[in-house]
Amino acid sequence: GSGKAAEIAETAARLKAEVVVFEDDLSPSQQRNLETLLNVKTIDRTQLILDIFASRARMAEGKVQVELAQLQYLLPRLAGKGVELSRLGGGVGTRGPGEQKLETDRRRIRARIARLTSELKELKNRRHAGLERKKEMNLPVVALVGYTHAGKSTLFNALTDARVEVRHRLFSTLDTITRLIRLPHNQQALLVDTVGFIRDLPHHLVESFKATLEETIHADLLLHVADASRPDLAGVEAAVRSVLESLGVETRDVLKVFSKADLVAGHPRPGLYVSAKTGEGLKALREALALKLSGERRTRLVFVPRGRLGLVPLFYKEGEVLGRRDRDGGAELTVSLSDRAFETLCRRLS
Fold this sequence. Notes:
Layout: H1 2-15, E1 19-22, H2 28-38, E2 41-44, H3 45-56, H4 60-74, H5 106-136, E3 141-145, H6 152-160, E4 177-183, E5 187-193, H7 203-208, H8 214-217, E6 221-227, H9 233-247, E7 254-259, E8 272-273, H10 282-294, E9 297-304, H11 312-318, E10 320-327, E11 330-338, H12 339-349
Parallel strand pairs: 1-2, 3-5, 3-6, 6-7, 7-8
Antiparallel strand pairs: 4-5, 9-11, 10-11
Helix pairs in contact: 3-4, 4-5
């Protein structure tokens, strides 16, 4: 009510606040009225998230997604004529899509939204082409998912020897990054780092970022990274499940791992614990990934005929060759292979 608004206004004035942020989403009229009452820039949680996203986007797709989400958020908040959006340049609650002045005419904003939607579709098509190329590599895809600041990028670097930027801040990864990961028994996979999730992610943000998260949807396995040191772990895990469900992601094939094991005493919950800092649990995690992706390995007897001898090196690459006997112009191999690798190689032999 007005009494609470007056109390907030008094606190904001005393603290010389430049921005007041409300945890709940505000309707356009609520935002305008509160800004008038408080006499200070007033934003809600969604706009704050968009501001942070805007400062994190580095790649073309991420930038387009952020601008599109911002414009969709701002369109119903254009009140009357002559209200300029150019004031959206610089600082929390004021970071907008670009530094240039934006036309306030709703028709032009809608036209910009249409152009961005078309551009995002084109970028999505390119991403699909990239996904097809990855399929041709015949490597399983593992997508890292988890709450923001769970340590996904640090773990990603530890598993792939990559140098993905790691900062102690929210949403430091906004663009998806893919690297090759080597697993036990000559197995390989593609590991994808994705944007961190948060509680109650606004619906239009989920829609805008579906393209970026598409690799999560099509992954063979989700590696759910949970910060073992968080006191509110149960709530955070529920938030991750909620976002995955809203994306339409099947959550059957999920391997959960607790990160930052060096920050907790013992293992308070059953499961796999790792520390990218000390290296604890990384070997066990690689073993678990290999087992989850390919199932149990079996020893098999395979005959490679003369015309297919060029495929023999693949058996050494994909499995463990325990013995070889050359006969009838071909090679008889005793090899330990996963079901997945065996089926793939048999298709190549036929």
